[in-house]
C-alpha cells in the first residue's frame, strides 16, 4: 500500500500539468503566440498589402503613437505693440497647423487640445491625437458604463427575485437583449436615437408637451457617447442580472429570517445581508463588465463610425481602422500592445499597492 | 432521429464527393477558379448564366465561380494572398486595382486580352497602374440626381440637361426653395448614412473635383498637399458643411428611403436605385446630371472589374473569359439584367435599356461624359480613409482648413512611408 501511495505522490507534480496541458496548449497557440507575433510586428513596417517584405523600423510605431509635445504661443501684436483681438475680444494667435506643418521640430504633430495661461495659449500636441482621444473615450465609457450596468443588473436581479407575479417572463425579457447580435441591437437603436423620427425624441417631446427640443443623439459630440453608454448598459445588463440572481439565491433564507426577527428594516437587510452575500458575484460582474467595456467596438462601428468629431472613437476602433482598413497592421498591432500594457499596469498597480500595505502591517 | 441525421449527412457527403469528382472523369477541360463579389441577386444570376455560356462554348477552359460577400471581399483577398491561394480570375473593385497590382497580386492583361477588345471600353472602366492595364470592367455605375418633374415645376426650377446642367447657384436656389416650402425637413439625400470610406470617396470626391480640387495631385500621384487642401478644396469644404448647417441634408437619414418615402425631394444616388425610384415615381421621375460646381460635372467612374492574378497558371484561359465577357452581347445581357451601365457603345446599342432612347440611356451618357476614375494609386485605401475622416469632421463643423490639412498630412506621410510606392526605392 505504501509503495502505491509513494508512486502517486511522485507523480503528483506531473498530473496537474498533464490535465492542464490541453488548455495550456490552446492558450499558448491562440493567445500567447499571436500576442508575441503582434509584439514583433510593432517593430516593423509590415503592411497587409505590399510587394516588399517588412523591415525593422525600431520604435517608430511607438514614437508615432505616443509622442506628446506642447506649443506655447504669445498673441499676435500689431505694429504699435498692442495685442490683436478678434471681434469677440479673444486674442489672435498664429494657426497651430501653420507652425506644426512648417517647422521641422513639430513635424507630424497635431493639436490635441489647448488652454490659456494669461494671454498665452498653450496647445498640447500629439503625433496621434486620435489615439489619445480614443483612449480617453474608452476609459470614460468604462468608468460610466460599469457602475451603471452593475446597478441596473442588481436592480433587475432583486426585482425578478422578489417573488412577484410573472417573474419568469420578466427574467426572459431582460435576458433577451443579451442573446441578440450586437450589430442588430446597434442598428435598431440607431433608429431609436434618430433626431427627427426616433422613438426617444418623440417620447421626450410628448412627455414634456413639446418643451424638449429634439436631440441629435448620435450627431452631437456631447450626447453621442452617453447614447452608446445607455445602449450598452441596456444590452449587457441581462447577463449580469443572471449572475447576480444566482448569487442572490445562494444567500441563506435563514439570515433574512433571523434579521426580520431582530427587527431589521428592508434597507438594513439589503445593506447587511444581501450586499455582503453578493460580494463575490459583484466582483465577478465588475471584472467581466470592465473587460467588455474596454473592448467597445461594434456599437461605435455600426452607429457612429467614431464620430461626430471623434467623440466616440475607441481604442479598438482605432486599432481596426489603422490595422485592417488602412492595411497598416504594424501600427494596429502597436495600438493593441500599448493598450494591453496600459490595462495590465492598471490592474497590477492596485494589487501591488495593496500587498505592500498588507506586508507593512504588524 | 439521430441515426437518420447521420445517414443524411453521409448521403450528402457522399453526394458532394461524387459531384466534385465527376467532372474530372468526363471533362478534359482545364478548370479556372474565379472569385467575385456578391453584388446582388440579378448580377449573381447573370454572371452565372454568362459563365455557363462561356463554358458551353469552350473545349479548353472551364470557369468555376465562387462568390464572396462584398463587405469582407478585400480582407478575403488579402488573406488569400498571404496564404498564396488566390484564384485565377478575380473581380476587383476599381480603386483597389492599383493597390493589388503594386502588391504583385495581378498580372497585366497585355497578351491575354487583345487591344481590339479593350479599345472600345470606356476609360473609367479600365484599371491601369504604371502604364499597364491590369483590369477591365464589364459594367460601370453612374451617380445622378433623382427627383420628380412635378417637384421642379412647383419650385419653378429649370429641368437641367446633359449639355446645360444646373450651376451651383441654381442648385442652391432650388434647395433653399424646397426647404422654405416646408414640405421637406431635409430636401436632399446624399446617402451620408453610409459611412464607408469607399462610398464617401466614390460619391463626394467628384463634388470636390467639380469645385476644381482633387484627392491627390494626379500628375505625380505622390502628394495631396496643395490639392486636397488647396483653395478650391477649401471652398468645397465650406460648401459641403453648409449643406448640413442649413439643414438641406441630414447628416444621417434614419434609412435609405428618404426619396422613396417622400421625405426628401432630391436624391444623389446610383443607377442601382433606378428600379425602386421608377416604381414609386413612375413617369414623374427625372434622372438628372449632378450640378456643375464650377469646373464641369463630375461623377465617379469605375466599378468592379475583371483581373488575372499573377499566380494564375493559365492566363490565356482567363484572358479568353474576359474577352468573352466584353462581347457586346455579354455586356448588353448583363446591363439589361442588372441595370448596370454598359461600358462600350456597341454593348449599349445592343441593350434594351441603354440603347439610344432606352429608359436607362441617361446613365450611359452620364458615364461617357462625366465619369472620372478615382486616383489609380496603391495609396487609395489610405486616401479614401483620410478623405472620409476629414469630410465627416467638416460635416460635423470642424474648421475646414484644419480638417483638410490633417487629411493631407495623413495621406502624404503614408505615401512617404512607402517611398512613393515606387518599387525598390523604399527609404
Description:
The complex is a heterodimer of chains A (362) and B (427). Chain A has 15 helices and 3 strands. With 362 residues, chain A is mainly α. Chain A folds into 2 domains: 68-126, no CATH class; 130-327, MetI-like (MetI-like fold, Orthogonal Bundle), CATH 1.10.3720.10. A 3-stranded antiparallel sheet of chain A has the order 1-3-2. In chain A, α6 (167-179) packs across α9 and α9 (221-249) packs antiparallel against α12 (279-294). The mean pLDDT of chain A is 88. Chain B is of the alpha/beta class and 427 residues long. Chain B folds into 2 domains: 30-140 and 302-373, Periplasmic binding protein-like II (D-Maltodextrin-Binding Protein, domain 2, 3-Layer(aba) Sandwich), CATH 3.40.190; 143-297 and 377-421, D-Maltodextrin-Binding Protein, domain 2 (3-Layer(aba) Sandwich). Chain B has 16 helices and 15 strands. Chain A binds chain B through residues 45, 48-52, 55, 95, 97, 101, 108, 110, 190-191, 194-198, 216, 218-219, 221, 305, 307-310, 321, 324-328, and chain B through 75, 78, 81-82, 99-100, 102-105, 185, 195, 197, 250-252, 254-255, 378, 381-382, 385, 392-393, 396-398, 401-402, 405-406, 409, 413-414, 417-418, 423, 426.
